[in-house]
Amino acid sequence: MNRITVKQLAKKLKLEVIAGEEGLDYIITTDEIHRPGLPLTGYFVHFPNERIQLLGKSEITYLHSLTEEERNKRIGNVIKKRPPCIIITHNQEGLTYLIKHCNKHGVALLRAKEHTTRVISRLSNYLEKELAQSIGIHGVCMNVFGVGILIRGESAIGKSETALSLIEKGHRLISDDLVILKNIDNETLIGTHNGTNRDFLSLRGIGMVNVPRLYGSGAFQEETIINLDIVLSAWDQNKYYDAIHHSKEYVEYLDVSVPHIEIPVRPGRDIAALIEVAAKNWRLEQQGYTAFNEFNQRIQDTIQESSS
CATH number for the domain including 21? Predict the structure, then answer.
């Protein structure tokens, strides 16, 4: 599993750091979040100190209702467990006692402006993606008609040039050359960039180009769910290519199965147009329509009419 620091979390979600700066380098290893209701009453059995601790209005209101001595004892016992960080929601104030203990034990105290439900949603989404199991794949990732496509193939087969053609047709680049795949929930595969190659497309003879600067911000997208795996291969005169394609093939990444298509490349073939058709075809199949099934049914109907 990947890891992120509290500092990265605070920067990404725009959280205010109000205490415990030395704890910003703490490593977060789980995407689970904990609201320490019971621990604030003194019950610490099975306390998940590896999780981010989140204090909403209910928890802070409860702490404010206690005497100063009891409040210091309750929150002090939580912070002594050294969780990755503590996040306060609703931009709540009057946190002097929290600041004191967080500074003492080196636990980062962060504050969010949003309400608790919103903060939990943002936290969960971010942590789930950042800490997901991931691998790097050589290829190009595009979003075509809302369909996430991973384009693979041997070096110099034309992956980036195909991506350029798709961009010029109004589709969106996710990543070129190196695609990061993340397993989000054992059924969903996300394709994204690695940060360094964000926005860039590498074209032999031209060099690096910045896609959003050339084609506008709409030509780039941060990530996409991978729906199709397409391999570009050099045309082999001795190989039979099925033009009917009645059987489906799949490839697995991080234990997630993705529909697989091979597109042979040779001069004169509009690969970008073929990928557009593949994307539209996939969308139709999700709606329950398969061209092969209709074609096959027509043949069966013709045979029945001829025999009757």
Answer: 3.40.1390.20
